[in-house]
Amino acid sequence: KNKAAAQKDLVTMLEKIKHGVFDYLEYFPNSKIALGLARERGAYTMVGEYLDAFMRINGPSLADATRSQYANDVIMWKGLLGENTPVARLSTTGVLEIVNSRPWPSNRRFNNAMTPLRGALKLARADNAKLPDWLFNRKMRQREKVNPDPVTMDEMNRILRWIRANRDPRCLAYFAFMFSTGMRPEECVALLWSDVDFSSRRVSVNKAKSFRGRVGPTKTEGGVRDVDLSPLAMEALEVMKPWTRHEGAEIFQNPWTNKAWYDGRSPRENVWQPCLKAL
Questions:
Q1: Following CA atoms 26, 32, 36, 38 in sequence, which dihedral angle do they give, to the nearest 10 degrees?
Q2: CA 6 – CA 14 distance, rounded (Å)
């Protein structure tokens, strides 16, 4: 059976040679000669080249945080698979064993890390259809469902009391405003005084400051919404007036730098998490 298949391939190759359309790379992608030919043509052959190509092709359309995460995953896969390993020499078993040997903390983390690897290997197979499906149609893992776990009113009051006793008043104002409006952290840190309508006691939520301080649209459908301000929210704004009240300025401020919060991560790591741990 194998001899018959080889004979059939030989006939096909001889016909292609006869008509000047034979491609050595198509039939012998694992050989040293094939790698040399690919280099001469400027074609990609190495794992690292395809991972980098995936980032160049897809990176510009990704959000900053996603692009940064994928870039870190690319570095990880280069180390695990070998940046200078020819893709033609990868084996399906070897790739799957490396993937499954990682101690993935969650299915979501697994899916995110697999995206650049899956994309790079797909590009390689698009360049050479004879390469194997290394991931063997491996599907994404089902993401774990995590039920919301909101704090109770009593817990909210305990949290605000702890922040009042252990942090700057600007931290208290920030979290009091967050509790009373339900705004997302990335929306709250981007809020300007010009977004507040004191006469109607409303605030226009129209932007968010996400990864690395980049200001962009909110996740809300339509991009803009109005939020009513409770007495607690109004009190938080009064607390912030002496520090930041001037045209075009962000309302909430990092007391360690005396500048606007860089993103929502900073107050979470410096105030929220220590508070919950202490309580």
A1: 30
A2: 12
At 113, the pLDDT band (50, 70, 90 cuts) reads very high
- Tokens representing 39 are 């280099």
pLDDT tens-digit map of 196-240: 999 999 999 999 887 667 787 777 777 789 999 999 999 999 999
pLDDT score, position 247:
64
249 in Cβ contact with 240 (< 8 Å)? no
DSSP 43: -
For residue 59, the Cα-to-chain-centroid distance in whole angstroms is 11
CA distances from 9 to 16, 25, 26, 38, 56 (A): 11, 14, 12, 22, 37
- Calpha distance 224→206 (Å, rounded): 4
- Tell me the pLDDT of the chain averaged across its residues: 88
- Going from the C-alpha of 187 to that of each of 53, 156, 203, 208, 279, the distances in angstroms are 34, 20, 11, 4, 26
Structure confidence at residue 204 (pLDDT):
94
For the cut 70, the answer to whether the pLDDT of residue 52 exceeds it is yes
* Single-letter code of the amino acid located at 55: M
Residues 124/131, Cβ–Cβ less than 8 Å? yes
Q: In angstroms, rounded to a whole number, what is the distance separating the alpha carbons of residues 24 and 195?
A: 65
Residue 80 φ/ψ, nearest 5 degrees: -75, -40
- Distance CA(66)–CA(37), nearest Å, equals 36
* Other residues' Cβ atoms within 10 Å of the Cβ of residue 149: 5
Given the structure tokens 């001889």, which residue do they identify?
14
What one-character DSSP code corresponds to residue 211? Answer: G
